[in-house]
């Protein structure tokens, strides 16, 4: 049962990674390599889990330092690609139901502070208090 659930989770994660790449070009340039790197590294870990028969309980899934360095290089290339690539059509697709509340919150934050990256506003506790949005506090702030 856990292996089946893990397979479904990895498939859904893969879909979210694919959808997310369309919007990374709208983030500040300094954020893009890190976002792409995280997606590539976590995707590689997911691949290891799949190769292990979706067993994430009894086997550890990891990437080597060399693999991570290669993935970081590819992420840098991905980030540079956002400077010259056309805007993907799927950027205009409606958000997934599970993430729509985040997209709506970012849009509200951007309307209040034009020209400021919505990602910065969403991460700022002061901005959340000023805006009155019902955004959840980051897990580290809750403890």
Please provide a written account of the structure.
The C terminus is likely disordered. With 143 residues, the protein is mainly α. Helix 2 crosses helix 3. It has seven helices and no strands. The protein folds into two domains: 90 residues, no CATH class; 44 residues, no CATH class.
List strands and helices in order, with pairings.
Elements: H1 2-24, H2 32-51, H3 65-84, H4 100-112, H5 118-123, H6 125-131, H7 139-142
Helix pairs in contact: 1-2, 2-3
Summed up, what is this model?
The protein has 143 residues and is mainly α. Helices cover 65% and strands 0% of the residues.
Shape summary: globular
As residue ranges, the low-confidence spans are 130-143
Helicity, in percent?
Answer: 55-70%
What is the total domain count?
A: 2
Please report the total strand number as a whole number: 0
User: What is the CA-atom radius of gyration, in angstroms?
Assistant: 17 Å
Assembly state: single chain
The helix tally amounts to: 7
Order of helices and strands: HHHHHHH
Largest sheet: none
Relevant terms:
globular, mainly alpha, single chain, 143 residues, 7 helices
